[in-house]
Amino acid sequence: MGIVGMIYQRVRLGQWEIGKMSEETILHVLRDCVKAKQVWDLLVRMEVHRSFNRAELRVWILMNLTDKLGVGDWDWSHTWATGIWLLWSWRNKDLFEANFRRPTNPTMALW
Fold first, then answer.
1. What's the domain of life for this entry (predicted)?
2. So what's the pLDDT on residue 111?
3. Among 6, 38, 100, 107, which residue's beta carbon has the most beta carbons within 10 A?
C-alpha cells in the first residue's frame, strides 16, 4: 500500500480525523483539530479563547509571538512554539508510525 493509501485508510478508520476528507490546513493541524483544541483549551486564557480560535493564520502566529495568551506566568511564545512543534510531530507520527500513541495528558509535555 502506498503512502496515500495509508493516509486515506487511517483517516477513514478514524485514527486521525480531518473530517470528511476535507483539505488539511496548517490551522487545522495546529489549532482547529480536536486533538489540538485539547491542548490549547487548557493553556490559553479564557478571555482570549475567541480571538485565539478565530484568527486567520498570519494574525494567529503574530498574536502568539507577541501577546501573553497563556494561563500561567511562563513565556507564552516559547510555550506556544513548543506546542505547535509537538502537535505537528504527533500528527506525523499518527500518520506514519503504526504503534505511536499520543500522550494521555498532552499539556504535561509543555510543562
1. Eukaryota
2. 63
3. 107
d(CA 86, CA 110): 9
Residue 4 falls inside a structural domain:
no
Domain that holds residue 64: 23-110
Contact present, 52 and 37 (Cβ < 8 Å): no
Query: Is 86 within 8 Å of 109 (Cβ atoms)?
Result: yes
Could you give phi then psi for residue 70, rounded to 5 degrees?
-80, 160
Instruction: Report which secondary-structure segment, H or E, holds 50.
Output: helix 49-54
The CA distances from residue 70 to 12, 21, 96, in Å, are: 34, 32, 31
Total domain count, the chain: 1
Return the percentage of the chain with pLDDT > 70, whole number.
77
Percent of the chain with pLDDT over 90: 54
How many other C-beta atoms can be found within 10 angstroms of the C-beta atom of residue 93?
14
